[in-house]
DNA sequence: CTCTATATCAACCATCCGGTTGATACCGGT
DNA sequence: ACCGGTATCAACCGGATGGTTGATATAGAG
């Protein structure tokens, strides 16, 4: 039972929306994706901005394995803002199927990835897509992204020590919820339907239903609305 | 649009549970019922203690019209604790169908009713049932009931000026919810299924569904869980 | 090396819920 | 006298949800 030591991404979901909004409105990007990183360093809870769902599906099914900016590559590093075209030489890029078969056909020229960490652990990431129609990213743009990253990192640390977060943690530990169950509760508290929760957590509807059964049993309730209600009443 | 002036029973439901628990655990009663009183002085949201559901059904269908302690009788008075056997003479009691056909067959000897008011308006009531097996209520018992009533009245006034109540009111007025819609939202926030909400509000399932459609439209959501979620997020 | 906890998924069924349409009734303001 | 807002109810449909059973896989504890 190591539930207590787990860093729980409660509150991250709202943070994620706000951050994605900030990034896409300030920087000139054609598409963007944000995600949470779970304890196994795997990205979950994708939120997209101006990205075709078919493109995202392609990534999820195939190209995530080839992604040079995939979070698993960076979980042990301290990289914050990484530009794909800096990471991969022009030569290698044109031989790289990730570039030739996926990024390029979708009209993308470059990708800038921002990583957020708490206690040195990678907890969230943002991928900003630069289209071929745009000019090459200048150092000024990268600088902007770094400044925004700095503030997001600050904001994230605030979120982790907020009373709301503490309250949520207390709630979850009081009912002895497992890490996955906590995430489900978090999404239930957003009022999301099961299907969306399954998509967000990158697992099947059946799994979510099983998690929900366990949550219902632990909280002694029998509907998602009651779960949200309990959270509301516990403040 | 007189929504703003309406006294809204938000938070009353929790209060109701706590009060019923207090009364039944401290005083020697065989059954008890509590209810909220709406703007039309009609009782809604019944909560029962040790009362057979068939007895309550009989009351709801027939005998509420004959009830000498019915809240409509007391909405304009300032009565607080009323003992039925003090109100109705022994002679009249034995000719009264409410007593001979309803109360007596269910083994009840006497009823003590407690009324709670805010700004002189009757907002909630509690009926305590004394069984025939119990000794006649002594003045000491009535005194206890009056002391408890005093504290309940105090507590109720606190509830009405609590931040939680203010927050809820602000939430409802922000979305321009009608009085009935507020009550529905209040019950949704308890995580209750529609059927229970209908029973509580003493109207049909269809009516609740219509109210919910209006609420969904006003809050721009499309599920009850999202309503609870919105309330939770708004603190 | 078991055994338990956790996480994953499938299939089934009954019920609940959301969405819609349409209808009646009451009240208050124009 | 008419109209808009509120409250009430009915009937229908399809999809979402809750409940159950059973199964597999992995990891950590004893």
TrEMBL record, chains A, B:
Keywords: DNA-binding, Transcription, Transcription regulation. It comes from the Bacteria. Residues 170-235 form the HTH luxR-type domain. The keyword Transcription applies. InterPro entries: Sig_transdc_resp-reg_C-effctor, Tscrpt_reg_LuxR_C, WH-like_DNA-bd_sf. One of its GO terms (biological process) is regulation of DNA-templated transcription. It holds the Pfam family GerE. One of its GO terms (molecular function) is DNA binding. This is DNA-binding response regulator. It comes from Amphritea balenae. The lineage of its organism: Bacteria, Pseudomonadati, Pseudomonadota, Gammaproteobacteria, Oceanospirillales.
């Amino acid at each position: 039972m190591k539930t207590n030591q787990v860093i729980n991404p409660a509150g991250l979901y709202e943070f994620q929306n706000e951050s994605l909004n900030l990034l896409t409105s300030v920087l000139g990007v054609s598409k963007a994706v944000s995600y949470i990183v779970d304890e196994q360093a795997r990205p979950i809870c994708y939120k997209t901005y101006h990205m075709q769902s078919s493109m995202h599906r392609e990534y999820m099914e195939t190209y995530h394995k080839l992604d040079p900016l995939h979070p698993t590559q960076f979980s042990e590093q301290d990289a914050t803002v990484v530009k794909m075209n800096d990471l991969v030489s022009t030569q290698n890029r044109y031989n790289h199927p990730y570039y030739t078969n996926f990024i390029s056909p979708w009209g993308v020229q470059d990708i800038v990835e921002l990583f957020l960490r708490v206690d040195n652990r990678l907890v969230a990431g943002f991928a900003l897509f630069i289209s071929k129609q745009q000019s090459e990213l200048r150092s000024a743009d990268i600088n902007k992204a770094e400044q925004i990253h700095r503030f997001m990192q600050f904001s994230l640390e605030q979120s982790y020590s907020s009373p709301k977060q503490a309250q949520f943690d207390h709630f979850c530990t009081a009912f002895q919820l497992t890490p996955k169950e906590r995430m489900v509760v978090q999404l239930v508290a957003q009022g999301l339907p099961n299907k969306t929760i399954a998509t967000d957590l990158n697992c099947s509807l059946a799994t979510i239903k099983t998690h929900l059964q366990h949550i219902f049993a632990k909280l002694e309730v029998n509907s998602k609305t009651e779960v949200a209600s309990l959270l509301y009443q516990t403040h």
